[in-house]
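Data availability (excerpt). The following record was deposited with the supplementary files.
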Amino acid sequence: MAAPTSNPKGRNLLAVIGDEDSVTGLLLAGIGDVNEKQDKNFMIVDSKTQTSAIEAAFQEYTEDRKDIAILLINQHIAERIRPTVDRYQAAFPALLEIPSKEHPYDPSKDSVLKRVQKLRGD
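Predicted structure:
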C-alpha cells in the first residue's frame, strides 16, 4: 500500500467506482478519461460485478495509477470491500465515499469520518 503521504504532482484526475447512475452523472460532468494505455478512470458496478473486480479497480486507482488525485466510491460499493477501504491510509489519491440514488449516505460507515472521530477522541 502507498505511504501515508505521497507526491501530489501529476495527479490531476478524478476516478470513480460506482453504480451506473453515479458514474454516468460524473461522466456527463466531464471527469471521464482514457489514457494512452486505454485505461479508464471509472468503473460501473452492478449486482453481477465480482467483489474481486471491485478490489482490483480500487488497487489500480489507489496504488498503480499516479494520475488520480481523488477516488470517489459509492458507499454501498465500499461496503463490499470495507476491509480494503478501511486499510487505505494514503493522502493521495483522496478517498471519498459518496451516496447513490438508491442508497443514502450513512456517516457511521464512512472510513474517513471514522478516522477523524478517532483522532478527535469521539
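Summary of structural features: The chain has a mean pLDDT of 90.
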